[in-house]
Amino acid sequence: MSTAPLMIEQEKIVVLDLGSAHNQLITRTIRELGVYSELHPHTVTAAEVKNMQAVGIILSGGSKDAEFNIDPEVFNLGIPVLEIGSKGETIASANEEKHAYGEQSHPEVGQPADVKEMLRHFAFEICKAKDSWTMKSFIDVEVEKIRSQVGDRKVLCALSGGVDSSVVAALIHRAIGDQLTCIFVDHGLLRKGEVESVVDTFSNQFHMNFIKVDARKRFLDKLKGVTDPEQKRKIIGSEFIYVFDEESAKLEGIDFLAQGTIYADIIESGTATNEVIKSHHNVGGLPEDMDFELIEPLKALFKDEVRAVGAELGLPSDIVHRQPFPGPGLGVRVLGEITEEKLDIVREADWILREEIAKAGLDREIWQYFAILPDIRSVGVRNEKRSYDYAVGLRAVHSVDGMTADWARIPWDILEKISTRITAEVDHVNRVVYDITAKPPGTIEWE
């Protein structure tokens, strides 16, 4: 392991959240220009901004910006400041002496190209930033951060087999090798064939220190009778951590827990200017007496950036482009109380959906698609007899990072084939419906 001096932080443009609905758009656009950008709450101090190696600051405001006071010393750092959407009253024009620059309109007022050009001018002409941020540079910086933080100690990775946790495992393994141990919890809420796939990939192909825990009964017992989606998420999140705590006690010298938290998880779980949309198991529900320090190297990345990092790390395509899957698994795709019967139904329906989408050659065109089991039954006909069975919902969306989404226009003949197979092959299902709601107003998952 290298002992050379580490450049842990890289230059960045810091976006301070003053209530704008377009914080993510601004942050993403700057990154697309090749300049690293981070979104931070308005409460950060000038000293903290300076320590971030910021070369530029953007105040991203909205109709409520008067409620959010920032540290006035931000304007005395000698770092250029651009204020967007704050009515123009605080900074109405360029102020070279104070390095302040005003933009009175919100990004949505102009055309996307105009917004990008304005940010390009600020980044390169005003801030003199370098377009040096790539996935390779991100990996290099994060590897050094991990080595610096961990030293010769050991890390436990919460490996679910999804894209996020898989990329985290690969990134940390590159940084510290066998100091990493991955624990995979089979909580009984995974998709058909997923347990076998995870074990084969990380244990047999990547040869990581890998432990599989069969906790199916434990999770289902905890979830018995629970119908509220937020409560289900909290229970699953807490139980995950308790399982890792117990398993780590069987190991020697585990000090860190690695999680696949990404930016969307944090935003949707609520920030200073964003209400909770839904809690994520790796953001909410952590017990106060948790015995680990957290390592979350992807928490500043959007979903498409996580996939790009995975490809750069050499992960196989089927992992990098694996369907997004919520941390609570099928626990939030079975609405209402979770039972073995309901899990079996949604697994089989989901398998048929994925199989037919792949046969149609749409598996790389549609960003995410899955089956849901609403907590409703309806009258139907099955085997020429009246039935009163479950309805299955199908969801398929196009998205880039999961922050917004549009429903996928799957051809009718393919939907017909999927519906016919599900009602014929899956017990206790007599109806299939297709969700045509965008995000917003709906979320991608139903719970």
Quick structural overview:
Helix content is 35%, strand content 19%.
Helix/strand layout:
Blueprint lengths: L11 E7 L4 H10 L4 E5 L4 H6 L2 E8 L19 E4 L15 E4 L8 H15 L8 H16 L3 E5 L4 H14 L3 E7 L7 H12 L3 E6 L1 H8 L5 H21 L4 E5 L4 H6 L24 E3 L7 H10 L4 H4 L19 H20 L8 E5 L4 E6 L2 E14 L7 E2 L4 H14 L3 E6 L13
Parallel strand pairs: 1-2, 1-3, 3-4, 4-5, 6-7, 6-9, 7-8, 9-10, 13-15
Antiparallel strand pairs: 11-13, 12-13, 13-14
Helix pairs in contact: 4-5, 4-10, 5-10, 12-13
Written overview of the protein:
The protein is an alpha/beta fold and 447 residues long. 35% of the residues lie in helices and 19% in strands. It has 13 helices and 15 strands. Strands 2-1-3-4-5 form a five-stranded parallel sheet. The chain starts with 11 loop residues before the first strand and ends in a 13-residue tail after the last strand. Mean pLDDT is 84; it is low at 1-7, 87-95, 103-110 and 270-287. It comes from Sporosarcina luteola. This is GMP synthase (glutamine-hydrolyzing).
